[in-house]
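Students often ask why we bother encoding 3D structure as a string. The short answer is that it lets us treat folding as translation between two languages. Here is a chain of 347 residues written in the first language.
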Amino acid sequence: MGEISLDGTKIRANASAKRSKDQASYQDWLHRIEEKIHQILQEADRVDTEEDRLYGEQRGDELPPEMQTQLSLKKKIEEVLHRFQEEKEKINVTDPDCRFMKERKGVITPSYNCQLAVTEGQILVGAEVVAEENDRRQLAPMIEQAEAILGEEGKEVIADSGYSSYDNYEYLSQKGKQGYIPDQYLEKVKQREYQKPEHRYHKENFSYHEERDLYICPEGKELRFSKERDSQAGVIPRKQRIYKGSDCPECPVRTPCTKARYRTIAREKREPLQEEMRKRLFSEEGRKKYKKRLYTVEPIFGHIKYNLGFKSFLLRSLEKVRGEFKLMCIGYNLRKILLHQKARAVA
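And here it is in the second language, the structure alphabet:
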């Protein structure tokens, strides 16, 4: 397999945004449905009594169609309200599995997050659909899915900054894989954004000295180790080392540097993994490797969404949507293999 490239895109769910509400809205909606059902029952009783008076006792085997609709809607709303015990965000009554997600142009719609793992030859070796907007927790599952399908391990992993996290850097390190995954600040570093006066006191401008275990601020002052604390970032809480300045109260630029009395810097214990990743990406080889995304995984989503018109799902629920997306991916692979065989036949 060699290199494996990962990417994700949002594809719209078969659900209207208007049908997404928070818990309070659903409670109010349920109350109104129950009142409607009560009114229908009262009207049914009145009609039944009048018909009995005119025609005698008659048997009615079916509920009125309107009653059936209201009972069905009530059941859906009660199911959604039950899910709020675990989830506090908005839930869509048409497709409760989808989530509000931001698309590339900033539009927020009920969607699913579709993931692909691709070889250098643009063959799909992993496909998945999740109801999480963020890509960070998808790196390990996608790599393991691809390796299980091919029966061999990938040596290098290429992905965009959406997959950047200390947990993922640690995972790649433990698995002995070379990663090419920029962190969220790297692009600004490359564009020299932090060299602008307004960003002078960003953490990126504080240099860490490993041999002395301290930071030097832009004004040449030292920030020494103060304490350790738990970091809530990532799947598992990790320890951070906190470095604190000592000359801050007398510093003439303390106000633009920090609102606190002393400036502090938090250093995650796995930060060397991020620094190693940056060095790799800044190298000539690393730049070439990362650019491969432009002609491996990214064009596939473009082809599926814009050439084939697969911009929204037809089915509902995570299970059915997964099947729909994987059928699309199987079709893509079959076409790719066919074109490859035709090219070989011509050659």
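Translate back mentally: The two ends are 24 Å apart (CA to CA). Keep this in mind for the problem set.
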